[in-house]
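User: My collaborator and I are trying to settle a disagreement about how two of our proteins should look. Neither of us wants to argue from intuition anymore, so we agreed to look at predicted structures for both before our next call. Could you fold the first one, then the second, and keep them clearly separated?

Assistant: That sounds like a sensible way to settle it. I'll keep them separate. The first protein:
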Amino acid sequence: MMGAMTATREVPGPGQESAWDYPRPPRVEPSSESVEIRFGGRLVARSTRTVRVLETSHPPTYYVPESDFEPGTLRPAQGSTRCEFKGDAAYFDVVAGEAVARSAAWTYREPMPGFEALVGHVAVMPSAMDECRVDDEVVTPQQGGFYGGWVTSRVVGPFKGAPGTWGW
């Protein structure tokens, strides 16, 4: 494809993972890392009971138990999308006071086989939040408005989402 970036795997250092070592189809794994999500000037979720979805060329996407969101911060939203691996996603607006991030969170109520661990968990677009943290490190959102990956110093890329990476 003309103009497409070439993916050259970064070599992970001690204590790091490479997104290029993640599988396709993706893997779901439990995480005990401390995850915090802030929006509208307040903490909307905190958890040490998340699951990470790991897929080749993508930083991890963290799914937080819905019960670990503050009451009233998730409002069902219209629309859905389909992931070829996980199934049909339902969306939420994230609400904190007057602040509303429309369709900025999603869940898989009836995921496809192999992704049952996602039931009852919600992911957010870090780019739509004030701040997301993993073990007190501020997350950099994955590039590209479609993806919800959480970039931390623990994971090296390059990551799909930047201009020219659609074909990866």
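The second protein, kept apart from the first:
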Amino acid sequence: MRFIIVTGMSGGGKSTTLKMLEDMGFYCVDNLPVSLLEKFAELITQPGTEFTKVALGLDVRSGQPFMELPGILDNLAENGIGVDVLYLEASDRALIRRYKETRRMHPLSPEGRVEDGVAREKEMLSGIKQRATYVIDTTNLLTRELKAQLDQIFVKDKEYNNLMVSIMSFGFKHGIPVDADLVFDVRFLPNPFYVEELKTKTGLDKEVRDFVMQYDEAGVFLDKVTDLLQFLIPNYIKEGKYSLVVAIGCTGGKHRSVTLADALYNRLEEKGGCGLKLYHRDVNALGK
């Protein structure tokens, strides 16, 4: 039987994840009191039970008993009941924005600032995050991208290394992305903006891609960056990094950076081994 506990930061996407898991055939229960977890696990693992896939949502709404969760997981393991923990998180900025958009109060700061509740919750959950089987950062994930990650883990049973690599194109004239971990500058390549028939097109168009990739330097750049990431990614995973943002920039973020970001994404997708996301920040911005 597959038994999953879905937990993590409030606003991280737990409710959405449980709905998706339900669509994948899981029997889902949300916000069961932590004190009932062992009894619940005992019931669903009894011989002859009809349950084959169960997902249980737990979070800080349980109050102080939530802090007992690591010990309860130890007890379940000693009794031969295997439990996978799926931990959902997002950046502080994203969590605060989500709460303000929905006008909901944070469960740990019902009468105070959302920022304070987020900080307290992060501290409370640090222990369970370290024990998580899977960690998904939903900061920049679209709903369909989250579903794809869950499908990869729980339906296709593919290897998942808890690292989400975001490949982002951008334009230097609009500023370097503040969340970038690695930044590469491709302004050394000829600019399609100065080719009249390509000026209004982007790296999403075949004509621009063909123009950029006709230069040997573009292929050499891709080879070297791919080799670098193949070295870095396993080491980042080993050190417990959950999110890596690779930013590729040109002048305006419409032509060269878009082409090369797409090409790099495709190369990494072929190799597999981590979650991937592609984002073109400035492809619709004005200017070259």
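Some points you might bring to the call about the second protein. Residues 46 and 146 are 32 Å apart (CA to CA). The chain has two domains: 2-154, 164-280.
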